[in-house]
Amino acid sequence: MIIKKRYVEENESGAYFTAYLLEDSKELLSGRKRPVVVIAPGGGYLFTSDREAEPIALKFLSLGYHAVVLRYTTGDMEGNKVGVGKQALKELAHTIRYLRRKSDLWMIDSQKVVVCGFSAGAHLAASLGVHWQDQSLLNALSNQAESDQIKPNALILGYALLDYNVMLKKAEREDLDEKAKANLEFMKIANKALTGKSDLSQDIVKEYSPIYWVSQHTPPTFLWHTAKDNLVYAENSLKFALELAKHNVPYELHVFQDGEHGLSLANEVTANKKEQIDRECEVWFDLAVNWLKKYVTL
Prior knowledge:
single chain, alpha/beta, Rossmann fold, about 35% helix, hydrolase activity
């Protein structure tokens, strides 16, 4: 295996990605290019979670995919750094373009670039999935980027925030317990880190909710969530799936009955407490890979 670290945009941000590349071998694919999975960890746009980074990459590597972990720009809990959403989106687009430009050297199949995101990282992945054609995003990238250079070929979205209206309506409920109230306070900080605003107007809600920008050009999408997620509610994935269906975009959706937010692989590899181990949810990865074979084959 070859490991390469690259800064996304020198002198502009500290974002970087780590590429885990399987070496060519006469006993394996021998000269054939491999698909690549770009992983966007979660963390509420306040950090990028280690639990949703390298362990996911190693899992894909074990199945013959190249894997890339993107550490995109995030804000901070103190509110000193906010409004990072557009920068993070540009970094993800830049990373995909870079991988396609290196496809011959790094033995990457440029038509098999998948983005796998979790929570805030899944919001980022979905945002690229619905905005990859936007001229404003292309203009933000240097060297006259073309839309097909930054388009993902498929998306895998784990417990993604996809519709801010779902979040705002839940916040208005009066029957919230103390944990739910604490989660809402965290979301307020995360919202500001993403958008730069403490109060989300409907214009901002629409701008940062991928659900409102789904089109026939959105890539095929695999979604998974848990019904008991009390931080990013499962309605996000349900409503996004409905929009995909309306636009005839292929998708697969799994909502598991139990399990908290942030499960990652839902096993001992990524758990830092027993609640993050869930055997029923652990199957999401196998389900996602089986689905992915319809669009991205080795």
